[in-house]
Amino acid sequence: MTITTFSSRELNQDVTRAKKATRDGPVFITDRGKPAHVLLSIEEYWLLTRQRRNIADALAMPEVADIEFDPPRVDITIRPAEF
């Protein structure tokens, strides 16, 4: 993976080149010499966001749909409070 850096001015002058650079990795866009933004390909974005699912989404995934999950039942008895 290659990280490419463009200044804001370079990005404005050649957006196509910046978009093509995302094929090799993220493109950092700087403002006044400091990183301010990151340009990613949509595939890289999906990979990053896919890892942050909630448990319901993860369990609904087709890869885990055929896994049997039968948690043991918990027996909770209620006792009166002792004061």
Q: Within the largest sheet, what's the order of strands?
A: 1-2-3
The tally of strands reads 3
Global geometry: elongated
For the CA atoms, what is the radius of gyration?
A: 24 Å
CATH superfamily of the domain at 4-56, by name, is YefM-like domain
How far apart the termini lie comes to 65 Å
Average pLDDT score: 84
- Sketch the major β-sheet: 3 strands, mixed
Output the structural class. Answer: alpha+beta
Would you give the CATH topology of the domain at 4-56?
A: YefM-like fold
Number of helices: 5
The proportion of strand residues reads 15-25%
Order of helices and strands: EHHEEHHH
Stretches where pLDDT is under 50 for at least 5 consecutive residues are none
CATH architecture of the domain at 4-56: 3-Layer(aba) Sandwich
CATH first level of the domain at 4-56: Alpha Beta
Q: Residue share in helices?
A: 25-40%
Pfam families: PhdYeFM_antitox
Family: Belongs to the phD/YefM antitoxin family.
Function: Antitoxin component of a type II toxin-antitoxin (TA) system.
Protein name: Antitoxin
